[in-house]
Write a structure and sequence with these properties.
Elements: E1 3-8, H1 10-16, H2 25-31, H3 48-53, E2 56-63, H4 80-99, E3 103-105, H5 109-119, E4 130-137, H6 145-153, E5 156-160, H7 180-193, E6 196-198, H8 204-213, E7 218-219, H9 237-245, E8 250-252, H10 256-259, H11 278-291, E9 297-299, H12 325-331, H13 336-354
Parallel strand pairs: 1-2, 2-4, 3-4, 4-5, 5-6, 6-7, 8-9
Helix pairs in contact: 1-4, 6-7, 12-13
Length: about 350
């Protein structure tokens, strides 16, 4: 079934993990054999051929670069200009993939419908370009509002104002506080450009402030439920209800620590924690129970988002295993039409409304 994944850090993997994502996944992992510079070496789950194998024909693909102030212990750049430069290197990789015919950028309704027709022609997915919608995860690299306009001209269509920690425009996961005037200015220009607001990673105060100041389209590309895993990275039921009221779609994320309670990073193992793919169905179903329908859930896997199989569901070998989700939903009583909504329909409905 044609599938949309609303969050993949492809360029980060290509440039910071030095992965040639045009190659088969087996080759990528074999080449990392013996490397110890990152915990997930040899445990990659995503490559472009694997996306085609899984019929994942459209993804929301990120740029990501953090600025850190002198008292911020997180890894990141010491100036917004350096962060901007990193994001532009990531953009250059996407453009190189386009030149090779591996990917195609989707920026509006016309390019979306053209791409859907290509993937819906009934022919093999082999050789078809993977469509990507460019998203910026954390706005630190936007030096000033002029750079948001530059990014839009380069294809940026979604933006999450914060990532982890304190940000220049909003506060993110494990931080607290409000967006303030700079954040409001960012939201205003995003709304004028019709850039989708990604509520993912906003701390509670910044989340509510963003919804109050932004009147454009809102989604949450990769977020799970606080009621099931109690952490500020997750959405509370009140936040989920607010997003539902705004017509948002929320993508279920497959990072194990977000799926099961009690996970200790660097120590816990998926099998020991009983973290399997069924757990993401629990999160998706929780949102459906709050909504009273299946209109607000999708997939935003975040696979290979600075982790690999060691921090993924134990029954997932690669992103191609997302093909098992329809059967899991069916066993929970979801209809075929609802399953299609989860795999692609809700994201498409959202985009067609946002880009009309």
């Amino acid at each position: 079934m044609f599938t949309i994944d609303a969050h993949l850090d492809l360029s980060m993997n290509a440039l910071e993990w030095n992965r040639d994502l045009t190659r088969p996944l087996r080759e990528i992992n074999e080449r990392e054999s013996g490397l110890t510079d990152k915990a997930d070496r040899g445990n990659a789950t995503v490559s472009l051929p694997t996306l085609r194998e899984a019929e994942i024909g459209l993804v929301v693909a990120t740029q990501i670069a953090r600025f850190v102030a002198p008292n911020n212990p997180l890894p990141g750049w010491h100036s917004p200009a350096q962060a901007w430069a990193q994001s532009q290197g990531q953009l250059a990789w996407y453009k190189a993939m386009e030149d090779l015919g591996e990917m195609v950028q989707i920026t509006d309704l016309a390019s979306l419908e053209k791409h859907l027709a290509l993937w819906g022609d009934g022919k093999s997915t082999e050789g078809k370009p993977v469509g990507y919608i460019l998203s910026l995860e954390g706005a630190d690299s936007i030096i000033d509002i002029r750079y948001l306009e530059k990014s839009y001209a380069s294809g940026l269509r979604a933006l999450g104002p914060a990532h982890y920690g304190p940000g220049r425009y909003a506060q993110g996961t494990d931080a607290s506080g409000f967006m303030g005037p700079k954040g409001h200015e960012l939201l205003k220009r995003m709304e004028e450009l019709n850039i989708i607001l990604d509520a993912t990673h906003l701390c509670d105060e910044s989340f509510w402030e963003a919804l109050a100041h932004y009147n454009g389209p809102v989604w949450a590309s990769h977020n799970n439920c606080r009621a099931l895993v109690n952490h500020n990275r997750q959405f509370s039921d009140e936040q989920i209800k607010a997003l539902i009221e705004r017509g948002a779609v929320i993508g279920g994320a497959l990072d194990a620590w977000m799926m099961v309670p009690g996970w200790i990073k660097g120590k816990s193992l998926p099998k020991e924690m009983d973290c399997n793919l069924e757990k993401i169905i629990d999160h998706l179903d929780h949102i459906c129970q709050l909504a009273g329908n299946a209109d607000h859930i999708g997939i935003g896997s975040d696979l290979d988002g600075a982790y690999g199989r060691e921090q993924s569901p134990y029954d997932l070998e690669s992103i191609a295993d997302l093909r098992r989700i329809p059967g899991m939903l069916s066993s929970r009583g979801y209809s075929e039409s609802d399953i299609e909504k989860v795999m692609h329909g809700n994201w498409l409905r959202f985009l067609r409304k946002a880009w009309v």
